[in-house]
Amino acid sequence: MEYRFSSNVERLQSSAVRDILKLTQGKEIISFAGGLPAEELFPLDAVKEATERVFRTGGKNSLQYGLTEGFLPLREQLCQRMARKGMRAEPDEMIMTTGSQQAIDLITRVLMEPGDIVLVENPTYLASLQVFNLSGLRVVPVESDKDGMVISEAERLIKQHKPRLIYVVPTFGNPTGRVWSMERRKGLLELSHRHGVPILEDDPYGDIQFDEQANYSTLFSLDDRTNGGHVLYTSTFSKTVAPALRTGWAIGSRKVISMMAKAKQAADLHSSTLDQQTLDQLLRHFSLDDHIKVIRRAYGERMQQMQQLLASQGWSDVKWEQPKGGMFLWLELPEGLDAEALLRAAVKKNVAFVPGASFYAAEPQRNTARLNFTYTTGERMAAGISRFAEALNEFLARC
Amino acid sequence: MEYRFSSNVERLQSSAVRDILKLTQGKEIISFAGGLPAEELFPLDAVKEATERVFRTGGKNSLQYGLTEGFLPLREQLCQRMARKGMRAEPDEMIMTTGSQQAIDLITRVLMEPGDIVLVENPTYLASLQVFNLSGLRVVPVESDKDGMVISEAERLIKQHKPRLIYVVPTFGNPTGRVWSMERRKGLLELSHRHGVPILEDDPYGDIQFDEQANYSTLFSLDDRTNGGHVLYTSTFSKTVAPALRTGWAIGSRKVISMMAKAKQAADLHSSTLDQQTLDQLLRHFSLDDHIKVIRRAYGERMQQMQQLLASQGWSDVKWEQPKGGMFLWLELPEGLDAEALLRAAVKKNVAFVPGASFYAAEPQRNTARLNFTYTTGERMAAGISRFAEALNEFLARC
């Protein structure tokens, strides 16, 4: 039969990243496109041991239905971890989700009506744009620079549009890798309080800082949490342990968390409890903090390697800021160059990346590209950058 | 701060079942409320062995991000299982979901707009009502009897309301345990084709039949699938393997499945791949069909035990139909009795069930109750029914 689809899903573009991932599956393509963590660093033995402990200690009960809010012992441990970073929340102010992606979706579903406005950085995480589009929101980008959202612009747009949510990735943004300055962090919080607009702080990469000594305070930790606070915070184990376990969480106002639980009951009852129990055991018997140090060091080195490979090309009009953490390099290509056309040329040379346009809510800057430096390493990274350079050079010669 | 919530989520009632589950957690309450499978029958050793195989054969790659549509080898195996039941679908006509609950949510999100109408059985699965409410649908119940929806009523309401979806649980309905007759199955399909309204066939209990010889054809298998067919079918491993693995699936028109994948990208990227890979290995090295036979026999005996316990009370005005499968007995209590008031009395005696009112989209029949017979067994079941009887008898004496 001829199915009719909801107008929101009709409008929804499939994620360029995932479409490219599909395209490149099984082929001899070197991909800098996905946001894939380094597979060789996954703590496989620790995860394996953790599942064994789950079955040994939990027995058959470990396979039963669980609470919508998530496995309580895991929430208790996570609250302690959060507290060590200055983020104080009780277990009933936390909900476990299928990746932090689901937290973004649930927060959107409980707070927003179709047609409502959300402010975002420019550019911003493309899968959050998909969530907002799926819920029929109007997305308004706020001028942003290397220190974060420009606060005066945010205020102007708050007054103009009366948004119901501000979505930000203040630490190692995706795609830009940028870190907000303390001034901007406090500035946005102040706006949020003054105008009564909640902030969704998405922090998937916060742990992946290259400078062990750096200390980037989350908006959540800076917020005055009397009356539940203005910040809803979400993060995930996908980058620090493994994505397959699909375990993220959100913390915030007790009332919002309980509304999210109601929505989650309808959405999927609860997330995998095998995964949650595994992470609970992992946190008890494995030093996740030591493991995170290993990841930080490795990713920092890979970022340096990619930077050097790019720098050695001697392009005068290809620019990037050195990221302080996260998983991506954000390139500004020569003006007038359309990175989507470049991608088509690159794929013919068996290398892939993500054209920057997908990350803009409006008026994309087309001469931008996101390159992941965590998944592809060593000689393979060098080969990939060399193919990328070949494609770009031909392109530049032709233009 | 004072958060404002979307009107749909404000209206959403928390599931009575899960609220009672929460209330009874850790207490000495015998609960017939939850839809919990028998824990002692979970194939723990097989699941444990399957996870070991996943880590051994998949290595670190088993912890990486996966496809939104789900783990392909599992989809391939599942398509073969479906085919053996006369349900023919290709892997790209199937999507893996976080329980079949998520399939209901995704289908709703891609097919329906707020204000659209969905027809349901009366009574019907309460968590599907929650999904429909969360999406702001209008739910219209169709008169139903022991053979299923009354087709002439369905047709009248289709003409009157122009629904965009018909949601049914034709085999061992929840809460009633009813099985639709072949005539009604074909009747509804015919209506669906004539009026161009898709059917969502929810089949979580289809495998749990007490008569090994019985053969209940799904609507999906009876449908003419030229042009993708009119039936979207969903089922789950929650009742046959274990709920903790949170793995369900949907099959249907390739176009609908691909739209569901787009929505799922936004909703949570993908479901747990550890769970999906575990189930894939389980299907390869464990006879799920033999295991299902064990469950069928055990649940059939438990159903008989509960029936006998109730029958032995000698009530003349407490009625039920003997279920042919599934997990629930559906009681009709004396007229005028409000089962929610009875529940409050019952909980004081440390026994719980679900009042029937929650399962009605409109005008509830309040003198109804759903009792689960799979989770509580033997002397504990006898003690529970005896407490229930005590509460009911006091109630009857007082009324």
Automatic annotation (TrEMBL), chains A, B:
Secretion signal span: none
Keywords: Aminotransferase, Pyridoxal phosphate, Transferase
Cofactor requirement: pyridoxal 5'-phosphate
GO biological-process terms attached to the record: alpha-amino acid metabolic process
Origin: domain of life: Bacteria
InterPro entries linked: Aminotransferase_I/II_large, Class-I_PLP-dep_aminotransf, PyrdxlP-dep_Trfase, PyrdxlP-dep_Trfase_major, PyrdxlP-dep_Trfase_small
Domain Aminotransferase class I/classII large: 41-381
CDD domains recorded: AAT_like
A molecular-function term among this protein's GO annotations: pyridoxal phosphate binding
PANTHER family: AMINOTRANSFERASE (PTHR42790), KYNURENINE_ALPHA-AMINOADIPATE AMINOTRANSFERASE, MITOCHONDRIAL (PTHR42790:SF19)
Record family assignment: Belongs to the class-I pyridoxal-phosphate-dependent aminotransferase family.
Complex and partners: Homodimer.
Designated name of the protein: PLP-dependent aminotransferase family protein
Organism: Paenibacillus montanisoli
